[in-house]
Amino acid sequence: MHKMHNTPLGRVFDVFNHIILLLMGLVTFIPFVYVIAASFATEAEIAARPFFIIPDTITTAAYEYIFSTNTFVRSMGVSVLVTVLGTLVSLALTLTMAYPLSRRNLLGRNVLLNLVVFTMIFNGGMIPTYMVVRSLGLLDSLWALILPVAINPFYLIIVKSFFQNLPEELEESARIDGCSDMGVFWKIVLPLSKPVIATFTLFYAVFYWNDFFNALLYISDSAKWPIQLLLQQLMMVANVDFGEMDTMLADPPEESLKMAVVVVATVPILLFYPFLQKHFAKGILLGSVKG
Amino acid sequence: MGLLSLKSKKKIVNEEEGSNQVSKMKLLFRNRYLYLLLLPGLIYFLLFKYLPMWGVLMAFQDYSPFLGFWESKWVGFDHFINFFQNPDFFRLLRNTLILAFYDLIFFFPAPIIVALLLNEIRVQFFKRTIQTLVYVPHFMSWVIIASITYVFLTTSGGAVNAIVEYFTGETINFLSSPDWFRPMIIGQVIWKETGWGTVIFLAALAGVSTEQYEAAIMDGAGRFRRMWHVTLPALRGTIMILLILRLGNFLDQGFQQIYLMTNSLNREVADVFDTYVYFVGITQGAFSYSTAVGLFKAVVGIILIYGSDYLAKKMKQPGLF
């Protein structure tokens, strides 16, 4: 970047700087590498060696085991369903609400905006929200993982600002061509907003996939546990009844099994990681512009 | 003719003012589809955000699920008084404040330092690779982070304890030791969020013109003086804003993280307001009392947010609203 007349001290600094950052990169990433390695290792090896990158004996027993159990496959199904459905619901609600709020001539716009902003600084809290969810009959329903958190007010405000900054001329010309409000939203605004929609699709999807709090709060039926809650029970409570599996293995590989569940819960995130990195950085910078 | 047109213009203006009500109705009607579009979102906010706000009135009742909201007895500030007189109150306040303070001292500067270090790297490939690696944990759920923590810190074959044992001959039970709870929590936050935290600082640094560096070089400033006098000041605004935001949610320690790392052995130092509300409210069913605790925290939170906004504006920063 900037031209250097590098002093000896500066060169020493450069060397150390590279080493420090490299170490930091390794320390952040190596735990994942170990967990992946351990998920392919035998029980004996995990017990014998505290750390390794490549197991001596590579086995897929843990994966065969978890994929043969109803409990695990069902949990994955719940997580995938909630993530896909939740993201669709959240996007639909966020976009349809953000558009009218971005129209400056909408009567009552400021009242509505204040209504939204106020929820960012004050909320009824865990118990009253729980009561509402309960009285709506949503306890132990997968909708309880979606509806109470369907709109993130921060995202709503960011999308609203984005809509507000779209060139007005395009809309005006569409209106002259006889387009209605709905038509403008559907045919002009949404197609112009593809990048912002992509960003918030990822934001919401990551949230739903990673969410553990709402499942803990609202889902007590273990048949409806998402993968995060199953993993938590497996790691920290250790009383998960894998029950009705086809007992192909007399002795389930306990440690590698945990590792395998961690890996499977992580994989979707890693798969989308290149997109996440790009879009999240954009989102965070969008968010730092005041709307 | 000119006079006439002026008159008629006046008339039109008068008409517009006089028929303000009518035009408002017209405006509402003309935008009817916009309101329709807005409706589902509005229902969401009323149902899941505003109905619970009204539900906080439970904090002033002896709510009984059998009697319901309307029939339950009103008890005024009893639950608040109970809470403040309960030793739990000071325990929660202490745990929360200590964690928040540690967070500010140990975690807050970390992304700034790493951003400064990254900014000094001139080999773009190396810089990008490191960034790609250190951003990863940000996208992982707390359950995954907690699981990995368990795997590495456990006394039965965890890698960290293997190292500790190699050097000291004994193992440390990090996971259930009250002494290690806070360092563990802050360590997790540093590990998970430092990398990602650099994004906003690196963006701020991208805006620094090379001319400033060139001018500094002309003035004979070496490497470190340039970092100190050009790079760091460029981050001042961002640092101030983040500091103020942090002050606004000083009481918010992540529920998920703390819940996941809490067990019966470290509960004494682990409990914060949110986890306490969960344990007392959801698992023990003390709805009204826990609502009162939650409301107390929310009210203090509002004061902190407005306080930090006031502070921001006093210091000529953009503020929050």
From TrEMBL, chain A:
Keywords: Cell membrane, Membrane, Transmembrane, Transmembrane helix, Transport
Gene3D superfamilies for the chain: MetI-like
InterPro entries xrefs: MetI-like, MetI-like_sf
Entry annotated with the keyword Transmembrane: yes
Membrane topology: Multi-pass membrane protein
Segments traversing the membrane: 20-41, 78-99, 111-130, 142-163, 184-209, 257-276
Pfam family, one: BPD_transp_1
One BP term from GO: transmembrane transport
Protein name as catalogued: ABC transporter permease LplC
PROSITE patterns referenced in this protein's UniProt entry, alphabetically: ABC_TM1
Domain ABC transmembrane type-1: 76-276
Subcellular localization(s) per the UniProt record: Cell membrane
Chief localisation class: membrane
PANTHER family reported for this sequence: ABC TRANSPORTER PERMEASE PROTEIN MG189-RELATED-RELATED, POLYGALACTURONAN_RHAMNOGALACTURONAN TRANSPORT SYSTEM PERMEASE PROTEIN YTCP
Family statement: Belongs to the binding-protein-dependent transport system permease family.
Species name: Gracilibacillus halophilus YIM-C55.5
This protein's GO CC annotations: plasma membrane
